[in-house]
């Protein structure tokens, strides 16, 4: 938290325990690698200048998402002891930060003096051949980058455990949890699927509004992308007719994020760029329509490629491909490429069947019901493309529509009903 608003960037707290000059050198080396840092107790903000040192340090630790402990032990009676202030900071950070967020640098101290397996952090011993603080700082900063444990993230879990995700957002924004901006950013761009299914788009709008309040977040690709997705979802929700709405302005957010270094961000940006182009194409003359739809297909196919390169778990990849493959299929259909449309429609149906099976054990019945509706939408797409109404799944739809009772997913089931009525008349 900074000035009462959330900061979308990693910040590393450096606890120095008698090695302040080395801590300053480490901070400068980290800054050179694009990592923001706080040297414990130093005044980094004018508002902190009059703070009691202990209060200042606690507030600095609260704002930090990771930590480096410069631990130099003193020998007493054959045992290594660390300075009390260092131990206080160490304990506070250990209790607050997620496992794997702390690096302990041992200076003239053996590894066995630290219970690494218990503390959930990784320890490194500074080599004896490093002669000065500049060399040591360079070594420490490189180790910090190289050994940093990356957060395990599954977009599918966002759908599977939406209530937990909402709690995480609230804890992060009210400061009750240690800042975890990397995880926050991934959740931010992955939460629109469940928020649509569960009528929580207003919740996401409030989260993004609070992120936008901090000017320091302006350049964040995740923030830009999330704002674009929100604008698209609101426009698409208000205008169910794809031939209505202004998507030219919205797509700028996706142009600005499609070159992100993160393939996951690139994939999502390309996906929504394609969606904007499709909706724009349906509003223009036929001479321009085909060109825009062709561009849309290119974006969808590139989105698919990027999702496959993003290192996602199987469930998450199936989830995203279920949307992208359907978008490719429908766009090819609008271009009258029926064979390609049919091929990608079958891919989408297969993806959606897999997601339904993955959701079987979830307490989130609404998500499962929503994906059943998504599956039947793909079935209806297939019937429309091929004209073949013999599919058993197509025969099931009327009975399913008669039994739907969950109002939370009524919107998507209304789409199933609408398409069923149109195709079956």
From TrEMBL:
It holds the Pfam family CAP12-PCTIR_TIR. GO terms for molecular function: NADP+ nucleosidase activity. InterPro entries: CAP12/PCTIR_TIR_dom (IPR019302). Residues 12-121 form the CD-NTase-associated protein 12/Pycsar effector protein TIR domain. This is CD-NTase-associated protein 12/Pycsar effector protein TIR domain-containing protein. It comes from Roseibium polysiphoniae. The lineage of its organism: Bacteria, Pseudomonadati, Pseudomonadota, Alphaproteobacteria, Hyphomicrobiales.
């Amino acid at each position: 938290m900074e000035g009462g608003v959330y900061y979308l960037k990693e910040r590393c707290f450096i606890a120095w325990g008698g090695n302040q000059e080395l801590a300053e050198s480490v901070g400068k080396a980290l800054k050179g690698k694009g990592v923001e840092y706080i040297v414990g107790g130093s005044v980094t903000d004018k508002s902190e200048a009059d703070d009691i040192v202990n209060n200042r340090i606690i507030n600095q630790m609260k704002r930090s998402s990771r930590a480096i402990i410069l631990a130099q032990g003193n020998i007493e009676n054959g045992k290594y002891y660390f300075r009390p202030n260092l131990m206080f900071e160490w304990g506070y950070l250990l209790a607050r930060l997620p496992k794997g967020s702390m690096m302990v640098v041992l200076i003239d101290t053996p590894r066995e003096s630290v219970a690494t397996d218990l503390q959930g952090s990784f320890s490194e011993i500074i080599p004896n051949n490093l002669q000065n603080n500049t060399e040591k700082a360079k070594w420490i900063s490189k180790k910090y980058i190289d050994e940093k444990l990356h957060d395990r993230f599954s977009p599918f879990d966002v759908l599977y455990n939406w209530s937990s995700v909402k709690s995480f957002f609230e804890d992060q924004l009210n400061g009750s949890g240690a800042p975890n901006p990397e995880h926050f950013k991934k959740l931010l761009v992955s939460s629109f699927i469940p928020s649509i299914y569960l009528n929580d788009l207003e919740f996401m709008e409030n989260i993004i509004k609070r992120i936008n309040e901090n000017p320091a977040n302006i350049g964040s690709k995740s923030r830009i992308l999330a704002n674009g997705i929100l604008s698209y979802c609101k426009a698409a929700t208000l205008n169910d007719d794809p031939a209505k709405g202004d998507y030219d302005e919205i797509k700028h957010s996706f142009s600005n994020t499609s070159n992100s270094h993160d393939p996951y961000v690139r994939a999502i940006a390309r996906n929504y760029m394609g969606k904007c182009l499709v909706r724009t194409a349906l509003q223009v003359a036929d001479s321009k329509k085909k060109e825009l739809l062709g561009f849309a297909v290119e974006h969808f196919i590139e989105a698919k490629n990027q999702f496959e390169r993003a290192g996602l778990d199987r469930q998450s990849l199936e989830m995203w491909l279920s949307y992208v493959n359907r978008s490719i299929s429908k766009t090819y259909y609008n271009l009258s490429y029926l064979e390609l449309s049919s091929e990608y429609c079958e891919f989408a149906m297969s993806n959606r069947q897999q997601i339904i099976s993955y959701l079987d054990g979830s307490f989130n019945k609404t998500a499962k019901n929503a994906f059943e509706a998504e599956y039947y939408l793909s079935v209806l797409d297939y019937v429309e493309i091929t004209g073949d109404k013999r599919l058993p799944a197509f025969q099931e739809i009327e009975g399913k529509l008669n039994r739907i009772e969950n109002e939370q997913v009524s919107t998507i089931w209304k789409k199933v009903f609408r398409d069923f009525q149109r195709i079956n008349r």
